Fold this protein.
Amino acid sequence: MAYVLNYTCNFKNNKNETILISLFTQSSGSFFTGNAYLAESSDTVFSFGGLGVIDAMVAGNYISFGGNTYLMTAVGFNPTTGNTYTVTIGAGGLSSGTFGFEDFVVSNGSGTLTVENFECVSCSINVNSDGSDILDSVLTRELIAVINVPKNSTFDHNTLLPKAHDDWKVTVTQDGVPVFDGFLIPDEGPIPFHDKPYEVTLHASDGLKLLSGQSLTRLDGTEFNDKHTLIEYIAAILNKTLLKLPIKIYCNIYFNPMLTRTDDIKWDMFSQVLLDYRTFMNSSASFVDCYTALGILFKNHFRVYYDQGQWVIYRIPEFQFLATPDRYYTLYSADGATFTGGIDGADYAKVGKQNIVRAINNNQTQYARLANKSVRHSFQYTPWDEIPRNNKFERGILDTTAANTSTQKFFIISDWEYGHRSTLPLVTPLPSTSDKAWRKSTYNIYGIEVDREILLKPPSSGGENILLSKSIPVNQSDKINITFDVKTVGPSGSGPASYFAAYVFIKTASGPVDYYYLINNDTNNPSYSFWGTVAGAGASPVSMAAFYTAGADVSKYVSVNVDSSVIPVDGDLFIALVSSKLFSATTDVYFKNVVLTYYPYVIGGYIPVKGDYWQRDQTTKYLDSFSEEVFISDSPMGAIKGALWYGNLPVKNKTVPDWWRYGLGGSEIRHYKELVNMGVWNLTYRRFRRIEGEWDGTTYQVNSDSSTNPVSPTPRYGFEDLSGTPLFAIVCPIKIDMWKGRFTATFIEVYASSADGTQEGTPTFKYLFA
Amino acid sequence: MIQGRDAIIYFFVDDVYVLYGCASDFTLQVNAGKKSVKTVTSGVWNSYAYEDLGYTISLNGVLTYDLTKFTGWDMLKYQINFLTVAYKITFRDSGGIIRGVAGQIMIESSQFTISATDLVKDSYTLPGTGELLVFEGVNPCDIVITGLTKTGTTIKTINGTYTGSDLTTLYYVLRGNVVYPFFTHTSTTFSFTFSSLLAGPYTIYVYPKCVNDYVGTPNQITFS
């Protein structure tokens, strides 16, 4: 989808900065295959043909090409490549050199496009978050601009009225530097109810706040269904804004085996740490919204925001402490697939009465932030909602070859593998079978699903067919409960004393025994179970059996409910539902209510564990304390929400802490969550300054190289009028008046001496037991 | 406040500055906005910085109709059509030096005073929009294009000469379109080469632009 520039608003503010607001609308998509030609219809027509790429957009609606600048009455750009202007000029026309065109027009092939320029009455950019603190995770950006629409303008109420969210793209540049990208919000752009001329308020959003209405899916719109890197989730979330911006991440912590910036400056943890998709599920069949997902990822540790045409993710504790002299970042492409590294050379942004950013209007107030006696970060061991994957058999593909009717339909079950087994131990992938297993859904006359069963067709040859789940990581000392209902359809009346209905087994990564089977073979005590290492060899049943009393009707469901013994080893647990020839060659086997419940224990645990926490305390007499739950963490077990994984190694982040801040490798061994806890502790261990009010300037000057950048949450701001030049972080709400060249914001002190960022307090790590 | 009976006010109409007809007096008032910059280490004294600048011209005269000068009737026409107009004011100081100011104004209010025993008097409030240029001499841009020539049987190059010291760039206007084609220039000459030009006839106007961003008087060359 291409966008075409329709309207501009270009002015110089009180700081003599050139502010350019551009409004683009979606083109038909043929823009880049149309013609470029001279203004006069009799002039030579130049076709687009891929001979060149326009270098840049120049303020005032000019383009730069081949080292020269030309006026254009319309330009377009391709949002899939960001802000790169990819209009190409073709055969017989432009190459490098000087051209004699008096005007240069770009058409979409159906007519000349013109750009109308408005006068701007006011323009402000607001950055907001859910609070007004440095720990706020999501900083949203909005634009409010008032333009003057003259009486003969093509712009009117209908210009915005029928449009969808992504129909009107808005960009704002400040001396050519992007300070806003977003889309107009049509229902919040009031237009006077009378004829032109009038003033129109344009309201646009960068889309971060609107993520609360977007369910988490992958970039291509499909569901996450495996372990994915953090950057995969983040790219998918941020691309829901439709802006397709690069992602710049300031993060310099690592799990020990990871590649670091020593290997290549581009490496950070975001492309190496994995999270299971079930971290983001709010039930066994649906995902949280993208805004909530950002909170899960970043709470108390990172903040994400727009800055200079990029999404920026900043690790908050790095405002205070870096073990290296350089401030590293990794710059990812919009899809997260490619990335490079770099160094941010800025030391701090200068604030003071001799600087661009300075206090004005005498309305600043200063406070002391509360200091904490203790800071705790807890992490709940919440088992995945979906154990095993697709446990409700919700996801499936309609089998069009099955006997589907209006009242019953047959679905091939996703994430479960149906195959044949003739020997033990089970191996994956299973030998294939032409027999099928379905989710059989029954519907009433209104099309509402009223019953759901799992139907397993019997093996065509000997052995068994089994419906095998995906693995579930379990630990020694954990427990599970397995329940299901089973019946047969074919023979009726009494059956055998028991029917071997399922395998529940653990595959270990290594060790003397590769497989452990959960066995309940005591007819007199069917709820008793143990983990056996011998399977097959004529033993029947060899795992989970359904027992029948004498004369029981096997065509009726019988329930199995077994609490496991203590799991003996770390490994991957599987469930396999079985269809055998025990009854007859044509017996179908049905299952319902297949439920696995997971009870995590820590090694040697006395009772189930429900979480852990890191806490830091001090003896200084403060009365406040801070206690928050975080949602991602290293964890002693893998099958819980938010457990961090590393690569494809079978070793997840165990109780052995092995995280460290870059530059301290070899001397630092910590939990991931401890680094979160240390960060917040250092930001609140003493009373820090908080200064709010109105500030002059919309750009800041860097102390180290005198370069300037638009005011943003990225730098540390050094207050040079204060003794020692303490460093501050800017927090929301930030309201930048682009017209007057000033902003209102709050600054929170983060660093006054080397004591800030290096406080350990009295640390404690403990488990939370049920 | 700048007030001068000896001053002359021009308005820019149809590419030239024309005299304003029948002004009995006019006033140029420049105002600066301020903001407090008092902060820590400022002590007890107030401290201010400039915030913004604006100015207003007040114009009084006798309403006349003049085909060659800019008058109150033209002022009314610009106001009704929501137009702004460029102006220039020059005056001679006590030392005989000519100085000037220039810019763009809008017509905020027009007032016509009519009585049975007197001439119709008009007065205007003209707030400036954009920068107020202050310069020495009669023109805000001291560049004067003294000659334009063309080379070749098919038109490929325009050469020009100029006087003045404040040139930053030149552009040309052809059929209403403004183009900045990157003329190359020395301290006295400039040139520009076209890779192609249209068949004539047409006229190219070449404008100089000064360091104060003000556009000087154009010169022109006609192609057949």
In short: Helices of chain B lie at 72-80. DSSP finds one helix and 18 strands in chain B. The mean pLDDT of chain B is 83. Residues 72-80 of chain B form the longest helix (9 residues).
